[in-house]
Amino acid sequence: MGRPLKLKAFVRILKRFGIAMKQGKKSTHRILTKTIDGEKRIYTIAIKKGEILPVYVDGVRKAFDLTPEHGVSDEDFYGK
Amino acid sequence: MSRDSKIQVGVIVLEGPVTVASRRAKGMYHCRALQFDLVGVGRTKREAFAELRLLVEDYLGEVVSSTEPVRFFNPSSSDEWNVRDRKDFRVRAVCLGRTRPVRARPTSPPPLDARTLRELCRSVEQVDLVPASA
What we know:
The structure holds 2 protein chains of 2 kinds.
Chain A: E1 5-6, H1 7-16, E2 20-23, E3 29-36, E4 39-46, E5 51-52, H2 54-63, H3 74-78
Antiparallel strand pairs in A: 1-5, 2-3, 3-4
Chain B: E1 8-25, E2 28-33, E3 38-42, H1 45-65, H2 78-81, E4 86-99, H3 114-120, E5 121-131
Antiparallel strand pairs in B: 1-2, 1-4, 2-3, 4-5
């Protein structure tokens, strides 16, 4: 299970991995996108009290191949 | 161009199956659409489900507005598929788009997949998750 992230830290991680983020229909929802191997991946999340819950952090990692199985360790993902 | 082959702009409804798994974690409810791995979180199951519906709506809206190929399905891990509280639904997406000519219109809604969505829809107006048995 991932760890919760403040929005600012989360945005920093997304930038590092080239994932674009925009607002969804609801102000607390976000649409994340990245094209991998010519195919666009999409993932949508909700922000709760300015935080990204672990369930969404895990979902993002899986959707964009940012898991240890794809060579991205926790340390690589979260950074220092 | 014959009258029948003209493309009309109007409301179109697309439907596709989705399985929703519900579980409690750390005092919150999680409702997960297993075919897309999208998760709604809430203090109640109803709240989590309502959030999931909106996240699916955003997801499909982004598929429609994309010009490049899209990976439509992103299945959840097997752990999530094995959750006990699992229910089958139909995603019913109401879109504005190009409806098929009257003669070619199918009797059941067109399938919900990336190709059909992008071919027929300009925007996703509303998404409902309807029990599969309904």
